[in-house]
Amino acid sequence: MGQTPKCDVHTDTDPTCGRHNRIEEKTRQLKRAPVADGTLGRYAKSFKYWEKFCNDFNFPVWIDELPRGEQARMVGLFAGLCASEGHNRAKVGNKKTFDGKMAAVAFAHKAVRNAMLDYRDPEFELIAQGYKRTNSQVDRKQPVTTPMLRKMLELINLTEPQNQLLWGSMVLGFFFLDRSSELWGPHGKQVGTDATNAHSIEVRFKSHKGDRIGKCAVIRHYRTSDPALHPVKAAQACLKVRGRWLADKVALGPYLTSVSRKETIKKSRVANVIKTAAKSMGLSPKEYSCHSLQIGGACALLAAGKSDLVIRLMGSVHQAPGMVRDAASSMIKASTWELHEPNLMQLEGEPANLTQGNQA
């Protein structure tokens, strides 16, 4: 009782066997569907870090059969490892990355062992709360402002295709609050990359942190009067570079920012451009990172009158509403001079005359 019946003989003339196999395959697909493909890749990397931790200290990798106290002890030590050494070049970990790693460990136990972890005892809760408090205010990043985006554009040589892709992805990240890994390639019938009548760009998120059950959130931005900070032109530039490379038989991955089969525009390149622009404007480079693009876009939307709830649902913005408002206030002050420009960019909202239904 409780065992799944198996079909040992596979023949084309046995409809019961074929039906059973189709149902099993569909069940396996459903088992993989709770998380997005990109998340599965991150889970695999995080689980390897857990495996290394267990092997280094002679702990079992699978801990579902251990008593709750032993599970909590192991996970607490893992939290200490993440806090003291991290899993990056800086050897510094934060609470959110630890939570992500433990989500990977819990998912692996569900998928492989059909087991739930039970490690949240009072001692672990103390460790987790202490972890959260000790680094909650460490290296909080500042938002990228529109003047900074213009400075970044001055630093990029747009005659190079890869630099065109870099700039386009940065503009899209600012407007859509996304990461490079969330920008997959085009799907469906597309407007030509040179089309001048394309008035909007639409990004469909099959799954993201504001849409956990994958209802396919759709976010749209329209043309702006600013020729530099223009989401439609940014998308067209990325699609044009990708189309040119594919025509030249370059093997590309599924992402819009792919530069090869396995690589995309590196975060380090994006961060370097942002930090260089900050330094040239007399700001501290340490206060800026790739995440500053998302924060800047969120602050710009808030400054334009959008609610903090909509912004949090729209993108993976982790700041509390008060923090977003404070950052938005600083961003408005930094960009005050632009409010009097004739080319003030329209961040969101439908223009008065829309005659074309094309999307980039």
From TrEMBL:
It comes from the Eukaryota. GO terms for molecular function: DNA binding. Coiled coil: none annotated. Keywords: DNA recombination. One of its GO terms (biological process) is DNA recombination. InterPro entries: DNA_brk_join_enz, Integrase-like_cat_sf, Phage_Integrase-like_Recomb. This is Tyr recombinase domain-containing protein. It comes from Phytophthora megakarya.
